[in-house]
Design brief:
alpha+beta; Uridine Diphospho-n-acetylenolpyruvylglucosamine Reductase, domain 2; Uridine Diphospho-n-acetylenolpyruvylglucosamine Reductase, domain 1; 3 domains; five-stranded antiparallel β-sheet; four-stranded mixed β-sheet; 20 strands; binds flavin-adenine dinucleotide
């Protein structure tokens, strides 16, 4: 594919900008599913300034833009993705600034930085707060956008403020009080999480290490972590009778759907809410299977499941 696949006027989209551009870039290697098509343009901005300018130009030319994190909650269309896909892997989006010893316990971290690496580095610096997220594959930006978490806590618990670049290319800072974090959701406006400040707490690194081990062991005992997936396919629905969340995995299990297969995609035997794939699977297999699981769970339990995994489809916003 060439620039002809990009919208009109896009030849000037990247001119004189501090960005690296890969045209017709395969995205499979950037997602945990490891399947799906190519991005018309995978763009790596090398500065926040370049990101802002690029977003302004995209807005002006109506070029679709999406941002890719670690690809751990994402399914990419077999036909690939139109417009620009951003990847925040330049050093400026991957820095971690830790407080000097004895100072406040806030850390500034780039939106593209790997969450696991950040947990490792903050733990070693005797800072607690991120350890409940051990084993959740993510970048900081993706984790904030999805309010990643689980049984032991979520990232919203430690967010102090977020630096966001809007799709129109404007820089905004949101303080914690202005952001609502709820179950796997934040009401942050659309745009790119460029950086965040995390409010951590002083903690004993040995105790943190022990806690990480316990949480990792729990996660490994309930989730098929070695398989190719995007984590839980559906959100845990609210039980109207109690107002509590029910396990989507348990409902899928009760509906007798574990092991159901379409093409190379199947409902995990370990965890009903994981749709896993094997080599040769198509994104269409996963999409079809997710629709089938939702329909049959509704037919058999009366509960409608809502998707958590983000599907990127060519031609759709
Ligand atoms: C094996 C496995 C286990 C998992 N376990 C858990 C779990 O226990 N708890 C949990 O919550 N999740 C879990 N997940 C899902 C996933 O880890 C989280 O949803 C995570 O937050 C995804 O982050 P990411 O960087 O990979 O985002 P991506 O998957 O790349 O993107 C997800 C969404 O976030 C957006 N996004 C990404 N980066 C940015 C950014 N910088 N700014 C704005 N938007 C952005 C994307 O555009 C997309 O809409 C699991 C996934 C896998 C594969």
């Amino acid at each position: 594919m060439t620039m002809a696949a990009m919208p009109e006027g896009s030849s000037t989209l990247f001119a004189d900008l501090d960005v690296e551009v890969e045209l017709d870039a395969p995205l499979a290697k950037h997602t945990w599913y490891g399947i799906g098509g190519h991005a018309d343009a995978l763009v790596h901005p090398r500065s926040e300034e370049a990101l802002c300018t690029l977003l302004r130009r995209c807005a002006r030319t109506s070029t679709p833009v999406r941002v890719l994190g670690a690809g751990a909650n994402l399914l990419v269309d077999d036909r690939g993705i139109d417009g620009v896909v951003l990847k925040l892997d330049a050093p400026c989006f991957n820095a971690l600034e830790l407080p000097a010893e004895g100072e406040a316990t806030v850390a500034r971290v780039g939106g593209g930085r790997d969450l696991a690496k950040t947990i490792h580095d903050t733990t070693r610096a005797s800072l607690g707060g991120l350890e409940p997220l051990i084993g959740v594959p993510a970048t900081i930006g993706g984790a904030i956008r999805m309010n990643a978490g689980g049984k032991y806590g979520e990232i919203g618990d430690v967010v102090h403020s977020v630096g966001l670049v809007t799709w129109e290319g404007e820089r905004r800072t949101y303080l914690r009080d202005a952001i609502r974090f709820s179950y796997r959701h934040t009401d942050l406006p659309p745009g790119v999480v460029s950086w965040a400040i995390l409010a951590l707490r002083p903690a004993d690194p040995v105790a943190l290490q022990q806690r990480k081990k316990e949480i990792s062991a729990y996660k490994a005992s309930v989730q098929p972590l070695a398989a190719h997936s995007a984590g839980c396919m559906f959100r845990n629905p609210v039980d109207p009778a109690t107002g509590e969340r029910m396990s989507a995995g348990l409902l899928i299990d009760r509906a007798g759907l574990k092991g159901t297969r379409i093409g190379g995609a199947s409902v995990s035997d370990r965890h009903g809410n994981f749709i896993v794939v094997e080599p040769g699977a198509r994104a269409a297999d996963v999409m079809e299977l997710a629709a089938k699981v939702a329909d049959e769970t509704f037919a058999r339990t009366g509960v409608r499941l809502e998707r958590e995994v983000v599907f990127w489809r060519r031609g759709e916003p």
